[in-house]
Amino acid sequence: MKRSPLGIATFLLCTSLCAFAAEPGDKFDDKFRQLDELLPTATPYRTASGAPGHHYWQQRADYTIRASLDEANRTITGSGQVTYHNNSPDTLTYLWVQLDQNIYKADSDARRVQTAPSREAWMKPKGEEGAKYEGLRNTLVGREFDGGFKISNVRSSGGAPLKYVINGTMMRIDLPSPLKPGERVGFGIDWTYRINEQKVLGGRSGYEYFEEDKNTLFEIAQWFPRMAAYYDVAGWQHKQFLGSGEFTLEFGDYDVKITVPADHIVASTGELQNPGDVLTTAQRQRLEQARTAKKPVVIVTQAEAEAAGKSVSKGTRTWHFKARNVRDFAWASSRKFIWDAQGYKKDGTNVLAMSYYPKEGNPLWEQYSTASIIHTIEQYNKYSFDYPYPTAISVNGPVGGMEYPMISFNGPRPTKDKKTGELTYSKRAKYGLISVIIHEVGHNYFPMIVNSDERQWTWMDEGLNSFVEYLAVQAWEKDFPIGRGDPRDIVNYMRSANQVPIMTNSESLLQFGANAYAKPATALNILRETILGRELFDHAFREYARRWKFKRPTPADFFRTMEDASGTDLDWFWRGWFYTTDAVDISLDNIAEFNVSTKDPEVEKAWARARKAEEPVSITDQRNATLPRRIDTQPELRDFYNEHDDFTVTNADRNKFKEATKDLEPWQKELLAQGKYLYLVDFTNKGGLVMPLILEITLKSGKKYIERVPAEVWRYSPRKITKLLVTDEPMTALTHDPYWETADIDTSNNAWPRKATPSRLELFKAEQKAPDMMKDYRTPLKGDDDKDDNKENGRAEANKDSAATTPASGAAAKQQAETGQLKPEAGRK
To answer: Which residues belong to the signal peptide in this entry (predicted)?
Structure first.
């Protein structure tokens, strides 16, 4: 660092110019331009503030469904009556219905657009495997599986046949007469379909077969023809379902009767209407007790479930459920279910939290599932609104993690030692279970109530929900292991080349978990902690949830509401984080130190002498240190100049000081005497994403403090800036982003002086082992028991790491992302 006797006026002029000077030849890129060219124009339906407009509307669909589960043949047979309400200002001549199970047809678009892994993955050197057993089985079984809806009848409410056309996963129903604004129409559909084996074909629903006791567990979703959404921004949302983009649906009331084997227990969206027909007296009493219990009450015990699983009932029972104002309906059924429940009542929430799981889920599920549900509701209520539904359910089955109104499917279980039968669970399984339940139950808020368009924007439900999940687990315990939300966990993805912007269609996402879950969750965490602060952010986020509760927001509504309610222009933030693949990489390049010259020769020449003394002694002077000098042997040769040097204060200097300061105002003299230290600090934005400067300043006395500079410091020059820092004493160190709160992808250039990056060097022996066929030939064969053990261990490892390749590749990626199968980004290197 160098000090310059620069005049203060000249100095300030220089800094004002230097701070905003771009490199020669740079094309100016206004990172702070408004999003007007990207966001839709406000309408009477959606305001420029992000709130629903005075003429906001949305459609409604009410369902009456009667369905039967054929356990032996793994099929669903159903008949549904839909009442569709046209609340739009438009006249409709046809309706679109989603047939999501058609993804399992052998000729579905999802299968036809399937691509293989890279050629390198299939052609590894030395004959290594290039594909997993599970992946290849999924592909081959999917080619033969007779899946998809078999539509047998589409009729009007009066019974007249209606013309319909099926296009992949969508079905158009032509209306006999136009449906005008404010009118409603009723129609019926009969259907059947084969249920997929989830562990073979993947997907968001399916069955699991337990070889040990020959029983089956069913998790049933996307199981009936569902009305597609029609809304002001997109018209009919009839994008084909390819596996990743989920669903956007209309709210309505459901009346559903499900006929299952008589010894099955059913968990479902909605409230059970006929407990006297399907539960024993003891079970009904336990259920009532659970509503006010302080801990979970077991409704169906493990002993009762095990007893039911030893024989298969030939009779049936019909479970009747009703649900009000939900956008979907799912259920699960098995004779293996243990069932526990506990009520939670606070403020506007009065909910019965319930868990259903086979004995294979214990001891993990009985301890953590229902507690996790209640924790979720308690925490999500803080950041959004009171949970409005009467039940919240977590079901253990083959689906790793999936959400529906009031019910979710969650996968983690303990592992059983094949030889000893001992049940244990890993740390990953424990925290994976808690976090996936929080995540999936949390989806009741986003998107089951704040009803975003998942077919188009995965991040609007997964990203927002992952963010609130991150907040919720902090309240579970300190240092809860979660790989999404903390800025340091996203840096590997942010520095990678294989990215697309967050604002990419759901079916086109390259790294599903990182893009749709982790990056938006991290962005919102940074917005809360670093940009807005918790008070402003939390108010704005709650306002968004409140405004769009039971309505359908778009990205523009979220962006605009957050700005409107926080009183902050955030267009630069949305543009950088959501519309680009830029990264945060702010480099601290150079520092120059200045003191304001006091003009006092006593001070200034002493300062100059001290700087001279700090200069290194030349090698010549070091070696001449003992050289005999004539002036030492003949002192009479000394004169005035041997007693004084260039730093001697003269009377002329003193007179000049008096002359220079005699006309100064008192405040000007005070300014000269303050002795402030001024630093010009050069920063380069290497990553492209503008962010605030968070500067940790260390002074000579050891004092440290943080100075926060808003992101607008980059508004005139988004590539290079020079920032003026003023301190009361010399600065000895400066660090940008000391707490790793901005997801900076290269922290090695964030400090002055530069800091070495510690690492470890692993030493290893150089060994060359040649193949020995004779030894291999003479190796003893293993027994059948050994082979079985090896098979079982291999299968367990393969299941742990595998993902279905298609047609539910997106579902597999979602389940991996939500159950922790996708490895969280590592810390910084």
So the answer is: 1-21
